[in-house]
Amino acid sequence: MSDVFCSEIILLFPEKFLQVQVHSHFTSDNLLLLSINVSPIALLNLVKAVKMVQRQPEYPNNPYFCKQLFNNNMLMKSILLSLMFIATLNASAQFDKFFYNKTLRLDYVHTGNATSDAYALDELIEEPYWGGSKVNLVSPLDYGNYKFTVTDIETGTIIYSRGYSSLFSEWQTTAEAKETFRSYPENVIFPFPKKPVMVDFYNHTREGEWFKKFSYRIDPNSYFIKKERRHEYPSFVVNKAGDPAVCLDIVFLPEGYTNTEMEKFKADCARLADFLMKCAPFNEYSGKINISGVLAPSIESGADIPGEEVWKKTVLNSSFYTFDIDRYLTTSDMKSVRDVAANVPYDQICVVANSQVYGGGGIYNHYALFTSDNAYANYVFVHEFGHSFAGLGDEYYNSEVAYEDIYNLKIEPWEPNLTTLVDFDSKWKNMVTPDAPIPTREGDKNKYPVGAYEGGGYLTKGIFRPSYDCTMKSLSYNNFCPVCQKAIVDMLEYFTK
User: What is the pTM assigned to this prediction?
Assistant: First the structure.
């Protein structure tokens, strides 16, 4: 006689309810059989829901409300493993159904001032490689000041989404944005669709909601999609871990390296990669991280330093003194950045500026930019990569910045390592050191490694960080706090499936 088990789960998603019945039984040979009727994308969400229920089953704190919960732990684990296996197979099939193994890039111009913005299409470009996951296509995260979704028009199914931030969103918080309008070139990439799709762009409002700002229909057979390559260069391998589809793929781009300095660039890449691979928790994933470099020379060495009247002819047009902050090194030339990066499969872009000057910048799912030869190059690299890869926020509050009123203290920041304590349950409350008071006094930093220490996100009051010190707070290499490490691991897991 078989033991029969049945559970009905109701999952609450932003746009609709999904009801799934899972029937299972053990045969006489103790073989678990499952009968599941659910779409592949919904199945992926089901797996995420079950994982979260295991950690925190209470409602309403759990964003996935479960009407009934599996009671048998062994059965729960068996079902979870089976669901994960089935979900992976189905999600991979979803990629082949909707996409080719190459990239479609959408370039646009983002313009506005402190209180308004608008999107304007620039061009569509076909690129030869797709370096991202073929399983994790629809992001479960609400990170970023913006996000875009790709919807298959025939079925109405969202087949790809990603959150991101940009230099324009930062500029909107500066004093200059209150006085004038500016435009920034931006772009997004996604797998090349097989059928017509609708791409929708959303802004993360100050109230924490998503607001649709721009939509564009794409016919993948259009002859207006450019196939020309503007910046074709040779590439080289820094670290080879495996198939780009199941690895995190990082590309190093040279900025301010001349033709005669390409060997220096290769050596710098090897040294910087070593910094990353020895930094926790990246060191635990060295076997899942591909790193490559592109040999794109500049006419002159270095980067622009406007405050010192230094101007260099470089391939990516980077500059210190972004927003008049001397150490803030960025580029707004996203066309060139993407053009050069497209020479290899990639998930994350790292721009290495050939300079000894201290500085850098990192923007979520945009790029990380840092200098090669400063004494703090190891710290600056992993700090800026924390921004661009894991969406980590700055935890310092005593350095000069150009931003004004960047956070709404009435809601939670989207960055995983910052909180206003408005909804601490949604942040790292489950990681707090037992008995730690919230907020946590700095005098108790040794007693409570994880708490809620006031000061972060450029503010001394109203924003709290997880630990007293962290790589996201001070000049300390290989010092990510437990909460930041978890955020990085979560992202590593996401990109390597």
Answer: 0.84
In angstroms, the CA 287 to CA 284 distance is 8
**Rounded distance between C-alpha atoms, residue 167 and residue 136, angstroms:** 26
**Length, in residues, of the chain:** 497
Same domain, 178 and 143: yes
- In a domain, residue 470? The reply is no
**At which residue do the structure tokens 């009671």 appear?**
71
Q: Give the model confidence (pLDDT) of 268-320 as tens digits.
A: 999 999 999 999 999 999 999 999 999 999 999 999 999 999 999 999 999 99
Q: What is the CB neighbour count within 10 angstroms for residue 314?
A: 27
Residue 51: which residues within 8 A CB-CB, separation 6 or more?
A: 80
The two tokens of residue 99 are 């996409």
Closest to 343 in 3D by CA, of 474, 232, 447, 442: 232
How many structural domains compose the chain? 3
- Indicate whether 165 and 55 sit together in one domain: no
Q: What is the pLDDT of residues 96-133, one digit of tens each?
A: 999 999 999 999 999 999 999 999 999 999 999 999 99
Question: Which token pair is 329?
Answer: 């090194």
Domain presence at residue 279: yes
* Residue whose entry in the numeric block shows the structure tokens 């669901």: 83
380 is in which domain, residue-wise?
A: 235-390
Domain identity same for 198 and 102 = yes
Selection from 108, 98, 196 nearest residue 146 by Cα? 108
Torsion over CA: 405, 200, 86, 497 (sign): negative
Answer whether residue 426 is part of any domain.
no
